[in-house]
Amino acid sequence: MSELKPLLLGSMFAVLVVSAALAQTTIDVGKITCDRYILDKADARTVAVWLNGFYAGRRNDTVVDTKQLERDETRVAQYCMSHRDMVVMQAFEAMAE
Q1: What would the pLDDT profile of 38-72 be if each residue is shown by its tens digit?
Q2: Which domains does the chain possess?
């Protein structure tokens, strides 16, 4: 049993190191393509909230309309379905026009 302890501890350490290496802690929204936005559902909501806040800040709008946020998230995803190579920020701007 004592022979297995180093092996077990080494394996656990390796899993933790790999997990930490794979965890993404920052997102450069200016580089996210529509394809990535559609495929990565986990970050789609975060990106939609960020985009909504970014453009609201440009307009000096401090009100968060959660219903509009949901609509924007859906609209961006729909727009991105037919513009998969476009950067998601450009898609958001194109929708606003």
Answers
A1: 888 768 888 888 888 888 888 899 998 889 888 88
A2: 25-96 (1.10.890)
